[in-house]
């Protein structure tokens, strides 16, 4: 296991373990590929009672600034030239967690810009029995070694307080050193895995596993658990054409589906994505 702390395995129906998510953070650069998802993603998070935060990066901005709107937060962050704007954007959400902007008691979910949250129960309510000082990882565990030691944590989903995130990330993603710190982190990560697309998740894994981490698992029968699925991690992925078929809409209505991973880019799939949002808001 990476790090010196322990991994705790809890089952969702154990009630001896209170975390109450308040915010969700996503990030993008200023291109249309991901940025244009923001209006629909914002609405979907607000639908389940969560304040969405969008962190956007751009090369010609001078310094970070923030705009607080009704039930959403916009953060604008200058980025560098060494790597693509999309690479800096991937790290921007982690930088926000370590920055001076969130209140230390905010409980923040990390997510992706093209992910539409659906189930309030599976994303929010089921975690309210977990203590607020915990770091929760909630996702498929197909990135895990046998014995539940993570190879790599996904961004969807990590849940903890800003105070805990700050403790994990602030020394390596300082509020005033975003570009230099990201350059150093990516240099290190791609020396081990040349796929720069995974650098943010490798970094997240290294930092998170220096803290106690709670993994939410589902039970199988009376005695076991499945190491490849977590409770409620059912997802409609990318194409979603099946959503026009009544049985799949019934799965949404029955609260089986936690989220929908949209097709990309947004501008090529506008009608399809809007139809998904209409389904979500009519459940």
Characterization of the model:
It is a single chain. The protein is α/β, with parallel strands linked by helices. It has a single domain, classed as Alpha-Beta Complex (Spore Coat Polysaccharide Biosynthesis Protein SpsA, Chain A). Helix content is 29%, strand content 22%. The protein is built from nine helices and 14 strands. The protein has helices at 32-35, 38-47, 85-98, 120-123, 162-169, 178-190, 199-208, 246-253, 270-281, and strands spanning 7-11, 23-29, 51-58, 65-69, 72-78, 107-110, 115-117, 136-137, 158-161, 213-217, 219-220, 224-225, 234-237, 257-261. The strands form three sheets. Strands 1-10-8-9-6-2-3-5-4 form a nine-stranded mixed beta sheet. Strand 11 and strand 12 (224-225) form a beta hairpin. Helix 6 (178-190) packs across helix 7 (199-208). The protein is globular, with a radius of gyration of 18 Å. The chain starts with 6 loop residues before the first strand and ends with a helix. The model is unreliable at 1-5, 9-17, 141-147 and 218-233 (pLDDT under 50).
> Low-confidence runs (pLDDT<50, min 5 residues)?
1-5, 9-17, 141-147, 218-233
Reading side by side through the largest sheet, how are the strands ordered? 1-10-8-9-6-2-3-5-4
| Count of spatially separate domains | 1
- The fraction of residues in strands falls at 15-25%
Radius of gyration: 18 Å
List keywords for this structure.
single chain; 283 residues; alpha/beta; Spore Coat Polysaccharide Biosynthesis Protein SpsA, Chain A; nine-stranded mixed beta sheet; three-stranded mixed beta sheet; 14 strands; disordered N terminus
